[in-house]
Amino acid sequence: MNDFSLWDILRNLLLALRWTVVLSLIAFVGGGLVGGLLLFLRLRAGKWLDRAIGTYVQLFQGTPLLMQLFLAYFGIALMGIEVSAWTAATVALTLYTSAFLTEIWRGCVASIPKGQWEASGSLALTFGEQMRHVILPQAVKIATAPTVGFLVQVVKGTALASVIGFVELTKAGSMISNATFKPFVVFSCVALLYFALCFPISLFAKHLERKTHVRRA
Amino acid sequence: MEFDFGAVLVDWRLLAKGVAWTIGLTAIATLIGMVVGVACAWARSSGPAWLRWVVGTYVELIRNTPFIVQLFFIFFGLPAAGVKLTPETASIIAMVANLGAYATEIIRAGIEATPKGQIEAAVSLALNKMQVFLRVVLPPALKKVWPAMVSQIIIVMLGSAVCSQISVEDLSYAANLIQSRNFRAFEAFIIATLIYLALSVGLRRLLNWAGPKLFFGR
Amino acid sequence: MSAVLDPSTTVAAANAGGAHVAAGAPIVQITALRKSYGTNEVLKGIDLTVKRGEVIAIIGKSGSGKSTLLRCINGLEVFQEGSLSVDNKPLLHESAMAMRELRQRVGMIFQGFNLFPHLTVGKNVMLAPTLVKKRGQVESSAQARKLLARVGLAEKFDAMPDQLSGGQQQRVAIARALAMEPAVLLCDEITSALDPELVGEVLRVVESLADEGMTLLMVTHEMSFARKVGDRVIFMHQGRVHEMGPPAELFSNPQTPELKQFLSSLHD
After folding, report:
1. Residue A167 maps to which CATH number?
2. Which chain A residue's Cα is nearest to B79?
3. pTM of the predicted model, to two decimals?
């Protein structure tokens, strides 16, 4: 039995970390685009669409991400499309992120005082002009902190992709732990690597939150 | 594409057992986790500097690492350091540690929002520190942050699905077992997902009703 | 109980007591207007004709429907029955284009100012003309400076709204509404949120607008202002026009017990 050094372990984990980062970014950006579209639809279209999207959000917020991953994996396969763990994970995490982000952003837009809508409406601005010049600039400022904060949730969510076989950091950790018989060391390293990735983002989000609240005073 | 939900529902006993395990794990984790949360919240807001640092480190470690990694560390990692645990024990410890960290921050926010006058009034009435905290500060704080607390408990309940990966026979495990036998994976997971959804709706209602009764109706 | 006076006597009275002349054609016409919130009817049949250049003060207890009536005129509130037309064009809620045109002719000033906090004072005033009337930046900017000078805030062009006092913010709001060159200005309790010492600066601007012939509909509690500047005062009670007349008559000779009670309660 080879004796694996700490560096051997770390090296392999770092290689897998790349995939964690890539999956996180794709889910975050993709989820942001879908979430933004959903937000626009929610604000603009009729009542039933608003309620439908609300249900979409509740589905993702009220069920385990693990189940969502399984459903993506087996569901896409059912449609006859060749599905890899990578595809399923990307789809599931993107939709998951879109649900949470659209809800966060909807809350931010809703927190803009009604008077801003009324004043800009009274000045004959169209809905699009109201959103672009009055509402969104204010909403974006409020939304930045929680959006950045959610990125941490996305990164942590990628760990579940390991269960459907996608080789990211957690899966690599399991595999290396089995190979080296050093689970304590391996999983400590895995945890610390996630921490190194997420903690700076959390700090940044906290910093942004402090900034938006100071401005308000 | 034809579905056969019957093939899954036939094994309703397995699903029920899974639901029982999920609820059981969540209940225990909630009770102990909240105690941990209250204690750590107190420590972080009024404790000595070294204790604040220790609790702070604990909180940030949990909040910035995935639950599945925490679970694997406790179940696979700790035995190498001499601590062997059953899957169920490991799951409870992981869930308690997880909820405890988030509860700490949630409750701390509630505590720190206590109007100063409340504490001054209580102290003037000769209550000691512990009494001031438990009787005057904590109940209104819990009431204020209860919605956030409920949401977090539900998140932990949903996150417990991962415990199936270390062979805890929860709902997720049941679904996996069923589909491995009858190959109706999609149906099995849809049914499990819907049950989870019902559990989160039900749990939210239950907690919203129970919270006032248990914690801040005093 | 609705007391409607002959418009010609209004003009005569205005000539006698007001500082300006209320000129001719009707600009706002409201007929049998009814509005409910669910089962609660807040406007129970309003009939009103406003002439170009008239200054109308709307007074009444809270809940009498005064603000609701004002907000119906620029479409912020939707009414269920009756008709409303501005400049002979009927108000059509469903047509976004009709509403946009209406709001170019009817401007509104709010109790809470509602300045856009992320834009400078100058940009606040310039925003709508640039977007809606498609004016160029240079032209809008010059117009904004002129309007800000008009309300006495020329030097605040580059300031942010949160750096201004309440009275200054409200004056910027007036300049912002004027930038669209409306025919009618709706003022919804525009001084109610101001500290007493800041009320005067805003009312002075409004008075000068009235002197220049702007058509004004003001929901207000400032009775002395209504008496001085108003051509007509409308007393609303429980969703109806209860009494209406020139300020001199209405204030010194209230006909109905409700108005008498309202006026006496103001002196408490």
Report:
1. 1.10.3720.10
2. A184
3. 0.84
